[in-house]
Predict the structure.
Amino acid sequence: MTTNTVFRVEVRPKAGQADPIGEAARQRAMSLDLPSKPTKIDSAAIYLIQGNIDQQQLEMLADQLLADVVIDSATFGSAELIGESLIEVHPLPGVMDPDAEVIELAIRSILGVDVQVRTGKRYDMHGIDSQTAQLVARSCLANPVVHAIHNQPYHPQAFPKTSPYELRVVSVPLLEMGDKALTSFSREAHLFLSLEEMQEIQAHYKKLGRDPHDIELETLAQTWSEHCVHKTLKATIRYCEDDSSAPIDMSNRPGHVVNDDGSVTINNLLKSTIAAATKELMADGIDWCLSVFVDNAGIIAFDDETAVCFKVETHNHPSAIEPYGGAATGIGGCIRDIIGTGLAAKPIAATDVFCVGYPDHFTAENLPTGCLHPKRILTEIVSGVRDYGNRMGIPTIDGAVWFDNDYVGNPLVYCGCVGVMPRDKVTGDPNPGDRIIALGGRTGRDGIHGATFSSSELTDVHADEFSHAVQIGNPVTEKKMLDAILQARDHEDGCLFTSITDCGAGGFSSAVGEMGEQLGAQVNLEQAPLKYDGLSPTEIWISEAQERMVLAVEQDNIEKLQAICDLHDVQMCDLGEFGTVDRELILLYEGTEVGRLSMAFLHDGLPKTTRQATWSYSVSPTSVSKTKPSITEALLKLIAHPNIASKHWIIRQYDHEVQGSSVVTPLVGANSDGPSDASVIVPVLNSTRGLAIGNGLATGLRDDPYQMAIAAVDECVRNLVCVGADPKRIAILDNFCWPSCDNPAELGGLVRAAEGCYDAAKAYRTPFISGKDSLNNQFATDDGKTIKIPPTLLISGMGIVPDINKCVTMDIKSAGSILIIVGETQDTLGGSHYARMFGCDDQSVPIVDLKAGPRYANAIHSLINNCLVDSVHDCSDGGLLVAIAEMCIAGRIGASLECSETSLFSESPSRYVLEVSSSNIDAVKTTLADMPFVIIGETRNEQTLRIDDKECVWTLESLSAAWRGTLDW
Amino acid sequence: MPNALIITTAGINCDREVVHAFTLAGADVKSLHLNQLLDDPSIVDQFQLIGLPGGFSYGDAIAAGRIMAALMRQRLYPALVRAVSRGVPIIAPCNGFQIAAQIGLLPGPAPGQPWPEQAPKPTIALAQNASARFVDRWCDVEFPNQTKCIWTDDLEIPQQTSVLPIAHGEGRFIAETPELLKQLQDNGQIAVRYTIADNPNGSQDNIAGICDASGLVLGLMPHPERYTRWTHHPRWGRLDASAKVEQPLGLKMYKKAVAYASEVVAV
């Protein structure tokens, strides 16, 4: 007979021991605007254990498991209030409590008893009253979307119980609905399908002569969501330029038809631009792309035996509401994309790029309702990526942060992952009769409607309406699943599965729907292991619960796979079978059919639309011309601008060296604090062949997305080339985050960006191999305003480094060498950080010369390959002076410069700064003979940076302090 | 060629580089899952070297290494003690150190005393970093002259290359009593220290790693396996050619133990 007593144990540092968690909480609280500040916060961990155990066993658990006898003390029940007020934070029922599951495992091992565990945190606050404590809790200790906040010790009598599910097949009376009803039903049921799409579905069911079941509608909504099918990028677009200030020549582009009225019809934007460039490059000699645009990630050859793959995802909307969980599950999902590429790749690196509001701009007064403060968002998304990436053992090696106040309601979280795999494992397809096997985490109600949620606009009430779409990740579940999958892939009898994909947006519905597209599939939904009772078949089918993968497995291999899963404590279940007579998706629950859809309608039924796109050039308003600062002041301010300032606060929290593959890390130089242009790793540990990972982001050029896209590709290539990548072996990825493209003007910008991608990829001969888009990034405030994000295009790239021993970093290596700028500096400050901070008269943006840029890249690579340069740095955000200052800070070696004023702050593209020793200068000049380059100074054995003819002097210490100070959180 | 056992489980994630380091150092390496060893602890008796790699075993739920230690304490501790008695060198970096401390494998019994049959209560702890934050960076390290540790004694490393990478959130070394700390110092059980200026986590006495009284079992927060080629060094592009004549510090440590095992340890 089991009793269901809930025991409560508190664990806190012993008297005399430090309490770093409490102290960190106090420090966070100190930065808040509070009526009074906490003088001290004491932290304690809370364990609630429900089960049939006695006090003696409980004490044994405290001793052997919950507390460290050297530094902790345990209290049974609740200790008296220690300070003036108390806060407890517990996960809401149904929210993932990652520690609980393994604590239950350990208790089973120690006591041989099954118990249920929940964990929480207690904070005893000194010097603040209960009301202020609540404010601290809501501002930095808890998020009501996932946490319950208590001001008393929380000690429930029993854990909440759910009741078992009783089957009900729900029909939706769609056939009788008029247009208005269709529209409102789509919104209310969170389907987010357009009227046209709802009408198409209605027509389909009219033909079938019945109303759809809810599970069928949900399946269609998931599969047809912008998130899953990228319908905007694949639509037919009619594009008009209303002015001719920056025309793009649209003739002779694949899939483009120039109409008589001057408009252009583009049939499938993605295929006609980004994918077209890859196709043309592959037809023109690039033979190292192994899989492009068809799988979860793009794959290229690394060497004769090995391939590498790369994918970058966004997880913007969840991160707006619950940044920690949103970012963690963002990186978790992207890692699963890599595991689900081909016949499984091993993740070897992660990247992250964040776009948020300026941390010092928003106050309680001007922060829009429904938004979290940008500083909190950034802090928590960094924690989320850190906790997931570090626990997965994947080094996070590259990233960037871009600040703009228009990201306040809709921050961007880009998460990337790189994988390595044998070249004979780059493709896989299920066969009829293969079992549908799900591995990994259990299915719960969490994450329902993530795909459709991400395809809608954010509003001030989304935190309430979509809290179920937000999740907390459990990296250990994903890590052990990865271990099992790799073991199954490399099994001595050959790979134990024929196909694999991840459960991302849409959950089982998209994973099984996609894998079974050609064959059909029959699914027994009751087979899915659940986190708790009470889930309907529809909920099981569309839940986006994390850490799950779907595999197609031949019946003969099931036992072997089961043995591997058992060894790794990985949950495995058989959901059904691929292959049906009429290529249908048949959904059963305990033998009752709850849904049936034809794969043809599911995948090809989405109505093709023609969308309008317009373009007229408009210059973003910038602040009126201010008093121009002196050069001395300008550099100190620029280098402290958050976009440019050191990101060591973020980088140091990531394990960027796990797996032992590091060659060039994100921070380099004499004191390991210089900003590397890109990172380099060795995917194969005993090889000297490396892989450089970098990115390009040129949001400063948002006024013309065409130039912005080209500049981003240019910057990405330069970043990779600077560390040693061969520009002839660079593959890139596109990630568009745009405001709503239902607006023709925004779509026009998107068209221009895509055209820019096409032109840049062809010019640089850098094929796009994968990409992603998120096209509804704007925030509706409670007073009816719409805050649109700046159109944002992240270009991520990976490049092969032929010999890692030749890698170069950006830190000045020695005094007495010569500094050279390669590339043309255009006399414009348009789009620059200087213009943004201090204003400028000429707003025209610098133009990438598509003939010159690739030539410079090849020349720089040749210099690196011949060991003729000591350091190389790309000249981008902030301009030339910032680039050189960064090199000096990194090398702790000074320099004296001679250069014209106009060249100092322009952010002209395609430029590199080189440090060349005097013995190599002639050879370097020969290589650069037919390119623009200027000797701009020399490095000095002193701790200052100087421009002699302008009487500017900076100490490296003051530059370093300014550069490191902004984000030294 | 001596053989090495690497113990992995859910959340261990530095096994790949430990396998690689042992392989480079000349060992024949096998990685086995904890569940296999819990089923049959006698498997451990077949090996001449053991690695307990870093990572976040079981997500570091409750505290770093806590769950894995709880699972190992009853069934695997005796097999590990048998291995030490046979003279098997054991390396436990990072999460491995946190686990070794919690199952009483470190600091182990005082010199001359036998190993207890059951896992003793821990007497050292690796607590939250003073900053309460995970940190990845390289630290300057020193090896006490009088250390008994077979992994780190007689290492002559120039200052420029006497560095090791750390990556952890819970590495603040605490001895339960001042007497214990003094005992460890006096017995030569401090195997590696951060330099005074470069203590990343607030460890007592700048301790980065300790060994048991026999010198065979090394637990340390840094990751020597992430420093087995010169391009691992965070400033390798700035090192003089002369600094790179010898082998990188991490590889040297693994080589010392493998050489030791091939001479001393029989299966």
